Amino acid sequence: MAKQTKIDIIIPSYNARYLLEKNLPSIVKNTNDLGNLIIIDNGSTDDTVEWLKKNYPKTIIVRNKSNLGYTKPINQGISKSTSEFFILINNDVRPNKGFITPTLPYFSDPEVFAVSFNEEGASWPDMHWANGKMQFSQGSNKSNPVVSAWASGGSAIFRRSIWDTLGGLDEIYAPFYWEDIDIGFRAWKSGYKIIWEPSSTVVHEHESTTKTLNPKYISLIKQRNELLFNWQNITDPKYIRGHILFLLSHSLRHPGYLKVVLTAAWRYLTHPHQIKRKFIISDDNVLSHISKTI
């Protein structure tokens, strides 16, 4: 790894002072060479900001007037970061002692973009193409490091220079979901690598504030963003043909799915495309490399 003295921490939060109070002490204590602690407050109406100013006065606080979700706030937070390496971590994640140390040697390889932590109760993401779209599942064997399809946006360490080259998170996915999968797949197709490290352990208690939102709205956003991911990243002709057949057949069998397709199409056509996608690796090539143990 290149000589590194500081690692920034970036955390989005909304009305979750109780989670910061619960998990921030472990985050700060267990982060070796902590640089900037950056909290993006999404218009909280609790006393998050006042509590941070009192208990963590050196914190860089980005304040939004309303809850912008995850995608844009993360880009806001990273714009305040000054370190080559930074950690994205959710406010409901508690890292264990020494969680960073096993990740650092990987960065001696200049092509490594990110290293994802091992969340208790979860596993590394297995990605494959089936039934006209990218499919995902959790890997079964957690005993060895794995070449990962993406790094979790809620518990991973990233290299800033590659992040900037990729253009950060694509805000077409706002307010949340699929943006970390997107930047991970873009990284692979641009010639970079991502690792999942089993000895870098964290506890994710899944107390996300998205639980307070309408489940139908969340489902629509997830499905919309799944289509946007495939439309923006899949370039192999055989996969494109398969995806078109999926859209037609699935919409005929499930007419309600047309709402998802139209919502995604409207988003795709009306949202500014600010991310430049200069892929040098094929979809098949990426799929042949990921999900393998190291």
Strand content: 15-25%
Largest sheet: 9 strands, mixed
Query: What is the mean predicted local confidence, pLDDT?
Result: 95
Domain module tally? 1
Write a concise synopsis of the structure shown.
This protein has nine helices and eleven strands.
Keyword list:
single chain, 294 residues, alpha/beta, Spore Coat Polysaccharide Biosynthesis Protein SpsA, Chain A, two-stranded antiparallel ribbon, 9 helices, 11 strands, 36% helix, 23% strand, globular
Give a description of the structure.
The protein is of the alpha/beta class. The protein has one domain: Spore Coat Polysaccharide Biosynthesis Protein SpsA, Chain A (Alpha-Beta Complex), CATH 3.90.550. The protein has helices at residues 17-30, 48-55, 71-79, 160-166, 179-189, 215-233, 237-253, 257-270, 283-289, and strands at 7-13, 34-42, 60-64, 85-89, 93-95, 112-119, 125-130, 133-138, 146-147, 155-159, 193-204. Strands 1, 2, 3, 4, 5, 6, 9, 10 and 11 form a nine-stranded mixed beta sheet that branches. A two-stranded antiparallel sheet has the order 7-8. Strand 2, helix 2 and strand 3 (60-64) form a beta-alpha-beta unit. The relative contact order is 0.15. The mean pLDDT is 95.
What is the element layout, followed by pairings?
Blueprint: E1 7-13, H1 17-30, E2 34-42, H2 48-55, E3 60-64, H3 71-79, E4 85-89, E5 93-95, E6 112-119, E7 125-130, E8 133-138, E9 146-147, E10 155-159, H4 160-166, H5 179-189, E11 193-204, H6 215-233, H7 237-253, H8 257-270, H9 283-289
Parallel strand pairs: 1-2, 1-4, 2-3, 6-11
Antiparallel strand pairs: 4-10, 5-11, 6-10, 7-8, 9-11
